[in-house]
Every structure is written in C-alpha cells, then in structure tokens.
Specification:
mainly alpha, Multidrug-efflux Transporter Regulator, Chain: A, Domain 2, 2 domains, three-stranded antiparallel β-sheet, 6 strands, 59% helix, globular
Length: 228
C-alpha cells in the first residue's frame, strides 16, 4: 500500500491577516498586498487569481513585520536581511556596537553607499547634528554606526521629513543620554579599571531598558493617534 504526502496547508490573505492581528495591530490586507508588490512576498495564486500563502510565506511575513516594528528597518534593508538567509527563529535582532567597543570608520563615499543616501543629505544631517564625523587631514571620517543612522534618516527623508525636523530625534536622544550619565558618571570617570567596566555594564543595561521604554511609549502614542 502506498501513501501520498499530505498537501501543504495554504491560507487565504484574509486568514493570514486575522491570524497575525494578535501580534501586529497595524496589519491589514492592503499592507500584505503592498509587501507583495514590493517583491518581499510571493504567494501562490489560484486560477481565479486568489492569493494562497504557505506556512513558509506566513513565517516570512512575520519576520518582515518584526523587522519593521522592532528594528525600524526600511524595506530595502529588510530585503537584504531576508536574502542573507536563515529563518525567523534563527535570525537574531540587530543591535548597535556595545558601549565602549571600538568602531570602524568610513569616509563620505563609503557612508553614502552603505546607507543608500547621497552626499547632499549626508551634509544636511551633519549640519543639524545627526551625523558627527571627526576630521583628520581635511577628511571627514564617520563611525560605522553613523551609516545606520544615515540609513534611518534616509528612510524618513523619503516621506518628506527633512534634516531640520530630524533634530527632534537627536535632541530627545541627547536628553535620555544625559539622564543616564548622571547615574553612571562617577564610575565612568574612575581610574579603577574594574569600577569603570562595571559602570560601562550598567550604562549598557540602562540604555537597553530606556530604549525599550521609549519604544513602548512611542507605539502607545501612535495607537492613540490611530484611534482618534
């Protein structure tokens, strides 16, 4: 007696949307269609043109939505993340260089290429304090993390938010950093290596906790805005 493998279960776009609404408040059928139009999803189609999503398609969609929600990545970067391979469970969240670690440096051309922006925007971001290069021999050198900042600014710029208005984010970050500085400044200024390391560890933990609080408060404000 021969047995045949069970057909993989497929889901309609409405079923996928309903399934994910518990985790993603802003999910909608139109958003799923948009992600398909951008080439990030490739569901099967029936003869009548209806979309059918496999479990793999749903997992890919969950990964896209988490990268948007948790890491604020633009679709261009998400496409690169997905192309690098690995399942949603295997993919670890991206995080900035740990506090106190050395970063590599980039010149202006390298920064623009990595961030996907042009030199005009880079100079505007520098003018308003979002990029802070060091100058050596007349050449501006940027930290590698500046490329991530520039990429995020570039994504917002495509919605018409110019560098002048992006100062709001820089000012907010500066106020949060100043608050944390008051808590760990004595340890960071210590000449005792062990005490300084403990201060850096505390600063890292405080930064992660404050970042999570900022994220939660930010999304609460956006949900309230959507409900008006």
């Amino acid at each position: 007696m021969t047995t045949t493998a069970a057909e993989p279960r497929l889901h309609t776009i409405g079923a996928v949307c309903a399934r994910l609404q518990g985790e993603f408040d802003d999910i909608s059928i139109s958003k799923i269609r948009y992600l398909e139009d951008q080439g990030l999803l490739t569901p099967k189609r029936t003869r009548g043109g209806y979309r059918l999503f496999s479990e793999e398609d749903v997992e890919r969609l969950e990964t896209i939505l988490r990268l948007q929600r948790d890491e604020f990545l633009p679709l261009r970067v998400i496409r690169q993340e997905l192309a690098s391979g690995g399942s949603s469970a295997e993919r670890k969240p991206r995080r900035p260089t740990a506090i106190g670690e050395q970063e590599g440096e980039l010149d202006l051309a390298e920064l623009c290429e990595r961030a996907g922006i042009d030199a005009t925007l880079a100079r505007a971001l520098e003018e308003f304090g979002l990029l802070v290069p060091r100058v050596e021999g007349g050449e501006r050198l940027y930290r590698e993390s500046d490329a991530e900042i520039a990429a995020a600014c570039g994504g917002l710029a495509r919605y018409g938010i110019d560098a002048r208005h992006l100062r709001t984010f820089r000012n907010s970050a500066g106020r949060e950093a100043s608050l944390l500085e008051q808590l760990v400044a004595p340890a960071l200024r210590s000449r005792n290596p062990e005490r300084r390391k403990a201060g850096l560890d505390d600063l890292q933990a405080l930064a992660e906790a404050s970042q999570e609080l900022t994220r939660l408060l930010f999304w609460r404000e956006l949900r309230a805005l959507a409900e008006r």
